[in-house]
Fold this sequence. Notes:
Helix content is 74%, strand content 0%. By secondary structure, the chain is an all-alpha fold. The radius of gyration is 15 Å and the shape is globular.
Amino acid sequence: MKKIIVYWLPMPALGMINGIARGAIYGESLGEPLAHQVSALTLMLLLLIYGVIIRGKLNLSSILITLKHGAIWVLLTVLFEFILGLWVFQQPLEEVLYNYNIAEGQWWPFVLLFVFALPFLLKYGSKRRLSND
């Protein structure tokens, strides 16, 4: 369990870097919700690259362990988002929940789905090894 958490820790940092890049580079010119959608895609790409880097260090020996990785990573990500939004940034709950509203063009749920699927992609995504085991 500890190892799963340790390898999750850089993920929020990648998300923050991605958000800063969105604001500094293309957020204003693309407008909303397109900037958030592009940001969701770039974050998924960053997470995939990170996953390929750490793949050999993860214990993905069975489908259940792979499922455990994805579920814990999603749980930690959602907890992080709510703690950051509600307590650190003092956002109202409605504002935090808005990020989950696909009907409004928010793609955050797709990012969470990707985070859940990432261990599966790393284990089963290619017939050849994505990185050295």
